[in-house]
């Protein structure tokens, strides 16, 4: 069974703080995608990482793919209330299998 | 380019009924995947269709079925609805050979 463990499950912080979300698995993924989801809406793609050790930056968000392509992290610098939402990591496989394995999600609340 | 469109957005059904959900992928995307999202289980893969053929299937009972049409539009059907089928059903589309999935807003199904 392929599992993607995401932590922490909940995070409540003050505006301006930094935070890191982790995704870990025993499986090797060909890609790792991060999504953000608002209540009642579908997940919106933030970034895709495909190379072991890859680091991508999206404004105040930094995404890293582990060297062995089994884990990933999302770091947010100086969080803002607009960052509030559900963050999901999802592992993908190659070989024509368009299937994603999702972590349980991290519900982030940033208070002003 | 228009995103993934799911209809209807909301559905209320009673136990034992059946339901059909529709998904129109991003233009040019030939792969359509379906996911079920519940508070307890998170996002779980249902199945994927490519060129009108089911290519991958998750661990769901046979009451859950789908199909894809020649224009890549897809439908998902759930027969003999159970209370536990209440969930947000998400459709995602991707290009051939690239497992980067873009999600629709989802259909919220409530089974009473």
Task: Give an account of the 3D structure.
The complex is a heterodimer of chains A (112) and B (112). The model of chain A has no long low-confidence stretch (mean pLDDT 93). Chain A has 112 residues and is mainly β. The radius of gyration of chain A is 14 Å and the shape is globular. Chain B is mainly β and 112 residues long. Chain B has no helices and eleven strands. In chain B, strands 2, 4, 5, 6, 9, 10 and 11 form a seven-stranded mixed β-sheet that branches. A four-stranded antiparallel β-sheet of chain B has the order 1-3-8-7, with no helix packed on it. Chain B is globular. The N and C termini of chain B lie far apart (37 Å). Chains A and B meet through strand 4, strand 5, strand 9 and strand 10 of A and strand 4, strand 5, strand 9 and strand 10 of B.
List the helices and strands and how they pair.
The complex is a heterodimer of chains A (112) and B (112).
Chain A: E1 5-7, E2 10-14, E3 19-24, E4 31-37, E5 44-49, E6 55-58, E7 61-65, E8 71-76, E9 85-92, E10 100-102, E11 106-111
Chain B: E1 5-7, E2 10-13, E3 19-24, E4 31-38, E5 42-50, E6 53-57, E7 64-68, E8 74-78, E9 87-94, E10 102-103, E11 107-111
Parallel strand pairs in B: 2-11
Antiparallel strand pairs in B: 1-3, 3-8, 4-5, 4-9, 5-6, 7-8, 9-10, 9-11
């Amino acid at each position: 069974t392929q599992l993607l463990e995401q932590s922490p499950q909940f995070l409540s912080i003050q505006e301006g703080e930094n935070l890191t979300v982790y995704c870990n698995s025993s499986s090797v993924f060909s890609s790792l995608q991060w999504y953000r989801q608002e209540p009642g809406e579908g997940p919106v793609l933030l970034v895709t990482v495909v190379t072991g050790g890859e680091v991508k930056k999206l404004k105040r968000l930094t995404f890293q793919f582990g060297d062995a392509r089994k884990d990933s992290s999302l770091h947010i610098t100086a969080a803002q209330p607009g960052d509030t939402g559900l963050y999901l990591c999802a592992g993908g496989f190659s070989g024509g299998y368009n299937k994603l394995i999702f972590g349980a999600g991290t519900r982030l609340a940033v208070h002003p | 380019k228009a995103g993934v469109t799911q209809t209807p957005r909301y559905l209320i059904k009673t136990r034992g009924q059946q339901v059909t959900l529709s998904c129109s992928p991003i233009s040019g995307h030939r792969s359509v995947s379906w996911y079920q999202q519940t508070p307890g289980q998170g996002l779980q893969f249902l199945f994927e269709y490519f060129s009108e053929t089911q290519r991958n299937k998750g661990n769901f009972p046979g009451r859950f079925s789908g199909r894809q049409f020649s224009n890549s539009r897809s439908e998902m059907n759930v027969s003999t609805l159970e209370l536990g089928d209440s969930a947000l059903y998400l459709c995602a589309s991707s290009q051939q050979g690239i497992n980067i999935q873009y999600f629709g807003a989802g259909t919220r199904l409530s089974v009473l």
